[in-house]
Specification:
By secondary structure, this protein is α/β, with parallel strands linked by helices. The protein has a single domain, classed as Alpha-Beta Barrel (TIM Barrel). It is about 45% helix and about 10% strand. Strand 7, helix 8 and strand 8 form a beta-alpha-beta unit. Helix 6 runs parallel beside helix 7, helix 8 runs parallel beside helix 9 and helix 11 packs across helix 12. The protein is globular and about 50 Å long.
């Protein structure tokens, strides 16, 4: 498992009856890898994991692994109401052939550090898979501080990365100050990627990549290679779209962009509802402006593959 490059937090496609659209899930994963992504993360927040049953989660993992045929690693996000369910999900993901895990804090209950450490440690001990800790205090109300992340890393060799989504780029520096290169630091919010790389991040767990993978991979490449002027040309163009990843309706917004770009459906599971009215018009306007003002030389993602998954 190499924690580097652009790894989409993949959306979960749904049929008209809101069952999982496995055909589109598989094609979507293939398409993003074909357009420069280094791995796929399924069952995350953007994948609407909270609305998926345990069995549905396992089937999404199986579909993604089957579709990619070993061309890129598949990472399963582990989130649950209870530690026991999280442990079982991690073990099943390992059994199905996942290359790694992304560990979230427990849903609903916002424990203290002793409780959260016990939860994460139980998942880390449940399998030998390399794992990434997901720190998103804005969304989950649980903040894994750099010192706490270091404590986990020092006790668990298979904790290899952290998805830092606090939106505070200083956290990248703080984690690296404590741990050096012991953990791969991944940027977890779209609109902090260039700053995060400058601070030492080596990967991007991205959202808008679901609709614009080649553009995302190019931005990551330019920033990683220190081509600052070229990177900021793309970044300034991309930024209004990337902001969509940081607001409460990020799932609806990103799926809407996918639909407009012809690479998926805006369909979401309740309690989420699709955008309408002024919100929908505003989202379409942001995408239309981006499409009309693409930087010279920035190649568009290839058309969405229509071949079946075997």
């Amino acid at each position: 498992m190499h924690w580097t490059g652009v790894m989409p937090a993949m959306t979960t496609a749904f049929q008209l009856d809101f069952s999982v659209d496995h055909g589109t899930v598989g094609r979507h994963a293939q398409w993003m890898v074909e357009n420069g992504c280094s791995g796929i993360i399924c069952l995350g927040s953007l994948g609407e994991a909270a609305t998926l049953s345990f069995d549905e989660k396992i089937e999404v993992v199986k579909t993604t692994i089957t579709a990619l045929k070993g061309r890129a690693p598949v990472v399963a996000a582990v989130s649950a109401l209870s530690t026991s369910e999280a442990v079982e999900l991690a073990q099943r993901a390992h059994g199905e052939g996942c290359s790694g895990l992304m560990i979230l804090p427990p849903y609903v209950y916002k424990g203290d550090w002793r409780e959260n450490k016990a939860h994460v440690s139980a998942i880390l001990k449940a399998t030998p898979l390399p794992a990434m800790l997901y720190n998103n205090p804005v969304a989950y109300g649980t903040d894994f501080l750099p010192e706490q992340i270091a404590e986990l890393a020092n006790e668990h060799p298979n904790l290899e990365a952290v998805k830092e989504s606090s939106a505070d780029v200083r956290r990248v520096t703080a984690i690296r100050t404590l741990l050096g290169n012991r953990l791969a630091v991944m940027v977890g919010v779209d609109d902090a990627i260039v700053e995060g790389i400058a601070a030492g991040a080596v990967g991007w767990i991205a959202g808008l990549v679901n609709a614009l993978p080649r553009e995302s991979a190019e931005l990551f490449r330019l920033a990683s290679e220190g081509k600052t002027a070229e990177a900021f040309d793309v970044y300034r163009w991309f930024l209004p779209l990337l902001h969509m990843d940081t607001v409460p309706k990020f799932v609806q917004l990103i799926k809407q962009v996918q639909q407009e770009a012809g690479v998926g459906s805006a369909r979401v599971r309740a309690p989420r509802l699709e955008l309408e009215g002024e919100e929908l018009a505003a989202a379409k306007a942001v995408l239309a402006h981006a499409q009309a003002h693409r930087p010279a030389g920035l190649k568009a993602s290839t058309p969405f593959a229509q071949s079946g998954v075997h």
